[in-house]
Write a structure and sequence with these properties.
Chain lengths: 129, 155
Protein backbone atom coordinates (compact mmCIF):
# COMPACT_ATOMS: atom_id res chain seq x y z
CA UNK A 1 0.00 0.00 0.00
CA UNK A 2 1.48 3.39 -0.97
CA UNK A 3 2.12 5.90 1.80
CA UNK A 4 -0.70 8.33 2.48
CA UNK A 5 -3.50 5.82 2.14
CA UNK A 6 -1.88 3.00 4.09
CA UNK A 7 -4.28 3.30 7.00
CA UNK A 8 -7.28 2.16 4.98
CA UNK A 9 -8.66 -1.32 4.47
CA UNK A 10 -12.25 -0.88 3.26
CA UNK A 11 -13.09 0.38 -0.19
CA UNK A 12 -15.98 0.98 -2.55
CA UNK A 13 -16.51 1.03 -6.28
CA UNK A 14 -19.31 3.33 -7.47
CA UNK A 15 -21.75 2.03 -10.08
CA UNK A 16 -23.20 4.57 -12.51
CA UNK A 17 -25.04 2.21 -14.88
CA UNK A 18 -28.13 0.31 -13.75
CA UNK A 19 -27.07 -2.55 -16.03
CA UNK A 20 -23.93 -3.05 -13.96
CA UNK A 21 -25.69 -4.59 -10.99
CA UNK A 22 -28.33 -7.21 -10.50
CA UNK A 23 -31.54 -6.16 -8.79
CA UNK A 24 -33.10 -9.63 -8.60
CA UNK A 25 -32.05 -12.03 -5.85
CA UNK A 26 -29.23 -12.60 -5.35
CA UNK A 27 -28.73 -8.83 -5.81
CA UNK A 28 -25.08 -8.22 -6.56
CA UNK A 29 -22.70 -6.17 -8.69
CA UNK A 30 -22.05 -7.61 -12.14
CA UNK A 31 -18.48 -8.12 -13.13
CA UNK A 32 -18.55 -5.29 -15.66
CA UNK A 33 -19.00 -2.94 -12.69
CA UNK A 34 -15.32 -3.65 -11.97
CA UNK A 35 -13.86 -3.95 -15.48
CA UNK A 36 -11.24 -1.29 -16.29
CA UNK A 37 -11.67 1.45 -18.85
CA UNK A 38 -9.41 1.97 -21.88
CA UNK A 39 -6.52 3.05 -19.61
CA UNK A 40 -6.74 -0.27 -17.73
CA UNK A 41 -7.64 1.42 -14.45
CA UNK A 42 -10.65 1.01 -12.18
CA UNK A 43 -11.60 3.98 -10.04
CA UNK A 44 -12.48 3.43 -6.36
CA UNK A 45 -12.40 5.10 -2.94
CA UNK A 46 -11.47 4.16 0.60
CA UNK A 47 -14.58 4.15 2.80
CA UNK A 48 -13.12 3.49 6.26
CA UNK A 49 -14.86 5.45 9.05
CA UNK A 50 -17.19 7.25 6.64
CA UNK A 51 -20.94 7.40 7.05
CA UNK A 52 -23.16 6.12 4.27
CA UNK A 53 -24.00 9.70 3.31
CA UNK A 54 -20.36 10.73 3.21
CA UNK A 55 -19.58 7.83 0.89
CA UNK A 56 -22.37 8.84 -1.51
CA UNK A 57 -21.18 12.44 -1.43
CA UNK A 58 -17.78 11.31 -2.69
CA UNK A 59 -19.59 9.29 -5.36
CA UNK A 60 -21.45 12.42 -6.44
CA UNK A 61 -18.16 14.29 -6.63
CA UNK A 62 -16.61 11.58 -8.80
CA UNK A 63 -19.67 11.60 -11.05
CA UNK A 64 -19.87 15.37 -11.37
CA UNK A 65 -17.62 15.55 -14.45
CA UNK A 66 -19.99 13.19 -16.29
CA UNK A 67 -23.04 14.81 -14.67
CA UNK A 68 -24.20 11.54 -13.14
CA UNK A 69 -24.82 10.28 -9.65
CA UNK A 70 -23.94 6.73 -8.69
CA UNK A 71 -26.93 4.39 -8.65
CA UNK A 72 -25.26 1.84 -6.40
CA UNK A 73 -21.89 0.82 -5.09
CA UNK A 74 -19.92 -2.33 -4.40
CA UNK A 75 -18.32 -2.53 -0.95
CA UNK A 76 -15.20 -4.62 -0.51
CA UNK A 77 -12.19 -5.15 1.75
CA UNK A 78 -8.54 -4.82 0.89
CA UNK A 79 -7.99 -8.59 0.82
CA UNK A 80 -9.93 -8.78 -2.43
CA UNK A 81 -7.34 -6.55 -4.12
CA UNK A 82 -4.46 -8.87 -3.33
CA UNK A 83 -6.56 -11.93 -4.18
CA UNK A 84 -7.20 -10.34 -7.58
CA UNK A 85 -3.48 -9.57 -8.01
CA UNK A 86 -4.19 -5.90 -8.59
CA UNK A 87 -2.29 -2.90 -7.24
CA UNK A 88 -3.42 0.36 -5.65
CA UNK A 89 -2.39 3.68 -7.17
CA UNK A 90 -3.50 6.73 -5.13
CA UNK A 91 -5.20 9.35 -7.28
CA UNK A 92 -6.16 12.06 -4.78
CA UNK A 93 -7.95 14.30 -7.29
CA UNK A 94 -10.80 15.07 -6.95
CA UNK A 95 -10.81 13.46 -3.48
CA UNK A 96 -7.95 12.42 -1.15
CA UNK A 97 -9.53 8.98 -0.65
CA UNK A 98 -9.71 8.28 -4.38
CA UNK A 99 -7.47 5.61 -5.92
CA UNK A 100 -7.18 3.45 -9.02
CA UNK A 101 -6.92 -0.31 -9.21
CA UNK A 102 -4.08 -1.03 -11.64
CA UNK A 103 -2.27 -4.07 -12.98
CA UNK A 104 -5.10 -5.32 -15.19
CA UNK A 105 -4.08 -7.71 -17.97
CA UNK A 106 -4.76 -6.74 -21.58
CA UNK A 107 -6.75 -9.87 -22.48
CA UNK A 108 -10.47 -9.46 -21.93
CA UNK A 109 -11.11 -12.97 -20.60
CA UNK A 110 -8.37 -12.48 -18.00
CA UNK A 111 -9.88 -9.14 -17.02
CA UNK A 112 -13.25 -10.84 -16.57
CA UNK A 113 -11.71 -13.58 -14.43
CA UNK A 114 -10.20 -10.92 -12.15
CA UNK A 115 -13.43 -8.93 -12.06
CA UNK A 116 -15.19 -12.11 -10.93
CA UNK A 117 -12.87 -12.34 -7.93
CA UNK A 118 -13.84 -8.79 -6.96
CA UNK A 119 -17.49 -9.52 -7.66
CA UNK A 120 -17.51 -12.62 -5.48
CA UNK A 121 -15.99 -10.64 -2.59
CA UNK A 122 -18.33 -7.66 -2.84
CA UNK A 123 -21.60 -6.52 -1.32
CA UNK A 124 -24.07 -4.43 -3.29
CA UNK A 125 -25.39 -1.23 -1.71
CA UNK A 126 -28.19 0.42 -3.69
CA UNK A 127 -28.74 4.13 -3.32
CA UNK A 128 -32.05 4.87 -1.67
CA UNK A 129 -32.52 8.59 -2.34
CA UNK B 1 -41.84 -46.85 -40.88
CA UNK B 2 -40.86 -43.57 -39.29
CA UNK B 3 -38.23 -43.54 -36.55
CA UNK B 4 -37.43 -40.49 -34.45
CA UNK B 5 -33.84 -40.50 -33.33
CA UNK B 6 -32.94 -38.24 -30.41
CA UNK B 7 -29.68 -36.44 -31.06
CA UNK B 8 -27.74 -34.42 -28.54
CA UNK B 9 -27.28 -30.85 -29.67
CA UNK B 10 -25.68 -27.81 -28.07
CA UNK B 11 -28.82 -26.76 -26.23
CA UNK B 12 -29.23 -27.06 -22.48
CA UNK B 13 -30.51 -30.56 -21.90
CA UNK B 14 -32.37 -30.40 -25.16
CA UNK B 15 -32.62 -33.25 -27.62
CA UNK B 16 -33.51 -32.52 -31.20
CA UNK B 17 -35.42 -35.17 -33.08
CA UNK B 18 -33.95 -36.04 -36.42
CA UNK B 19 -36.49 -37.96 -38.43
CA UNK B 20 -35.42 -40.67 -40.81
CA UNK B 21 -38.89 -40.80 -42.33
CA UNK B 22 -39.92 -39.20 -45.61
CA UNK B 23 -43.69 -39.67 -45.48
CA UNK B 24 -46.21 -36.81 -45.26
CA UNK B 25 -46.85 -37.63 -41.62
CA UNK B 26 -43.13 -37.54 -40.85
CA UNK B 27 -42.81 -34.19 -42.59
CA UNK B 28 -45.79 -32.76 -40.72
CA UNK B 29 -44.48 -33.98 -37.37
CA UNK B 30 -41.11 -32.47 -38.14
CA UNK B 31 -42.76 -29.17 -39.03
CA UNK B 32 -44.83 -29.22 -35.84
CA UNK B 33 -41.70 -29.85 -33.75
CA UNK B 34 -39.88 -27.06 -35.57
CA UNK B 35 -42.78 -24.63 -35.10
CA UNK B 36 -42.93 -25.48 -31.42
CA UNK B 37 -39.21 -24.87 -31.04
CA UNK B 38 -39.42 -21.62 -32.95
CA UNK B 39 -42.21 -20.52 -30.64
CA UNK B 40 -39.92 -20.94 -27.63
CA UNK B 41 -36.97 -19.41 -29.43
CA UNK B 42 -38.98 -16.41 -30.58
CA UNK B 43 -40.35 -15.68 -27.13
CA UNK B 44 -36.82 -15.68 -25.72
CA UNK B 45 -35.56 -13.45 -28.50
CA UNK B 46 -38.54 -11.13 -28.09
CA UNK B 47 -37.10 -10.33 -24.68
CA UNK B 48 -33.40 -10.39 -25.53
CA UNK B 49 -33.36 -8.49 -28.85
CA UNK B 50 -34.87 -5.21 -27.54
CA UNK B 51 -32.54 -5.35 -24.53
CA UNK B 52 -29.53 -5.68 -26.83
CA UNK B 53 -30.78 -2.92 -29.14
CA UNK B 54 -31.25 -0.60 -26.16
CA UNK B 55 -27.51 -0.82 -25.46
CA UNK B 56 -26.63 1.06 -28.66
CA UNK B 57 -24.71 4.19 -27.68
CA UNK B 58 -24.87 3.37 -23.97
CA UNK B 59 -22.06 4.95 -21.98
CA UNK B 60 -21.78 6.31 -18.46
CA UNK B 61 -19.61 9.15 -19.67
CA UNK B 62 -16.31 7.45 -18.95
CA UNK B 63 -16.84 4.31 -21.02
CA UNK B 64 -16.80 3.62 -24.77
CA UNK B 65 -20.33 3.67 -26.26
CA UNK B 66 -21.59 0.42 -27.78
CA UNK B 67 -21.52 0.70 -31.59
CA UNK B 68 -23.69 -0.90 -34.27
CA UNK B 69 -21.15 -3.57 -35.26
CA UNK B 70 -21.02 -4.75 -31.65
CA UNK B 71 -24.82 -4.75 -31.42
CA UNK B 72 -24.92 -6.86 -34.58
CA UNK B 73 -22.39 -9.36 -33.18
CA UNK B 74 -24.33 -9.51 -29.89
CA UNK B 75 -27.53 -10.25 -31.83
CA UNK B 76 -25.79 -13.08 -33.63
CA UNK B 77 -24.63 -14.49 -30.32
CA UNK B 78 -28.15 -14.22 -28.90
CA UNK B 79 -29.47 -16.27 -31.82
CA UNK B 80 -26.73 -18.86 -31.30
CA UNK B 81 -27.52 -19.33 -27.60
CA UNK B 82 -29.13 -22.57 -26.43
CA UNK B 83 -32.89 -22.49 -26.92
CA UNK B 84 -33.68 -23.59 -23.40
CA UNK B 85 -32.26 -22.72 -20.04
CA UNK B 86 -32.02 -19.49 -18.07
CA UNK B 87 -32.11 -16.18 -19.89
CA UNK B 88 -28.98 -14.03 -19.65
CA UNK B 89 -28.93 -10.43 -18.47
CA UNK B 90 -27.30 -8.10 -21.00
CA UNK B 91 -25.37 -4.90 -20.32
CA UNK B 92 -22.58 -2.73 -21.75
CA UNK B 93 -18.95 -3.17 -20.76
CA UNK B 94 -16.72 -0.10 -20.20
CA UNK B 95 -14.84 -0.93 -23.41
CA UNK B 96 -18.01 -0.89 -25.52
CA UNK B 97 -18.55 -4.65 -25.66
CA UNK B 98 -21.86 -6.34 -24.82
CA UNK B 99 -21.91 -8.63 -21.81
CA UNK B 100 -24.23 -11.61 -21.31
CA UNK B 101 -24.43 -12.72 -17.66
CA UNK B 102 -25.93 -15.76 -15.96
CA UNK B 103 -26.27 -16.12 -12.20
CA UNK B 104 -26.73 -19.22 -10.08
CA UNK B 105 -28.54 -19.52 -6.75
CA UNK B 106 -25.37 -19.77 -4.65
CA UNK B 107 -23.23 -17.02 -6.14
CA UNK B 108 -22.20 -18.88 -9.29
CA UNK B 109 -21.60 -16.60 -12.27
CA UNK B 110 -20.90 -17.03 -15.95
CA UNK B 111 -20.30 -14.10 -18.26
CA UNK B 112 -19.56 -13.70 -21.97
CA UNK B 113 -18.45 -10.43 -23.60
CA UNK B 114 -19.00 -10.01 -27.34
CA UNK B 115 -16.99 -7.50 -29.36
CA UNK B 116 -17.43 -6.14 -32.87
CA UNK B 117 -15.01 -8.72 -34.27
CA UNK B 118 -17.23 -11.54 -32.96
CA UNK B 119 -14.70 -12.48 -30.30
CA UNK B 120 -16.28 -14.11 -27.27
CA UNK B 121 -14.41 -13.59 -23.99
CA UNK B 122 -15.87 -15.68 -21.19
CA UNK B 123 -15.28 -16.26 -17.50
CA UNK B 124 -17.05 -18.41 -14.95
CA UNK B 125 -17.09 -18.57 -11.17
CA UNK B 126 -18.57 -21.78 -9.83
CA UNK B 127 -17.08 -21.62 -6.33
CA UNK B 128 -13.79 -20.84 -4.63
CA UNK B 129 -11.93 -23.62 -6.41
CA UNK B 130 -13.79 -23.84 -9.68
CA UNK B 131 -13.19 -21.04 -12.13
CA UNK B 132 -12.68 -20.83 -15.89
CA UNK B 133 -11.95 -18.23 -18.51
CA UNK B 134 -11.13 -18.24 -22.20
CA UNK B 135 -11.67 -16.89 -25.70
CA UNK B 136 -13.86 -18.28 -28.47
CA UNK B 137 -14.92 -17.11 -31.91
CA UNK B 138 -18.59 -16.59 -32.68
CA UNK B 139 -19.69 -19.03 -35.36
CA UNK B 140 -23.05 -20.54 -36.28
CA UNK B 141 -23.52 -22.49 -33.10
CA UNK B 142 -22.78 -21.65 -29.51
CA UNK B 143 -19.27 -22.89 -28.56
CA UNK B 144 -19.52 -25.97 -26.30
CA UNK B 145 -17.31 -24.36 -23.62
CA UNK B 146 -19.85 -21.58 -23.30
CA UNK B 147 -22.82 -23.96 -23.19
CA UNK B 148 -21.06 -25.90 -20.42
CA UNK B 149 -20.32 -22.68 -18.53
CA UNK B 150 -23.97 -21.63 -18.62
CA UNK B 151 -25.04 -25.07 -17.45
CA UNK B 152 -22.52 -25.13 -14.63
CA UNK B 153 -23.44 -21.69 -13.33
CA UNK B 154 -27.19 -22.14 -13.43
CA UNK B 155 -27.92 -25.79 -12.64
Amino acid sequence: MPAGQAQYSLWARFIFQSGHYRKLAPAQPKLNAFLPGPLLKTSAIWRDALSDQEIWEIGDLLGSDRQQQPKARADLGIAAISEANLTVEPDPVPHPRHFNLCGWPAEKDEQKAIAMVLCANSSLVERKN
Amino acid sequence: MTVYCPQIDDSLGFRSFGSTGVSDIATRVEQAVEESLNHYLESRLEVLVPEIESLFGVSDGSSIPVDLDTISAAMQFAYALPRFGPMPEVSADPDGEVSFDWFGPSGEMFSVSVNKNKRLAYAGWFGETSRIHGIEKLAEGCPPQIVRGIQKATR
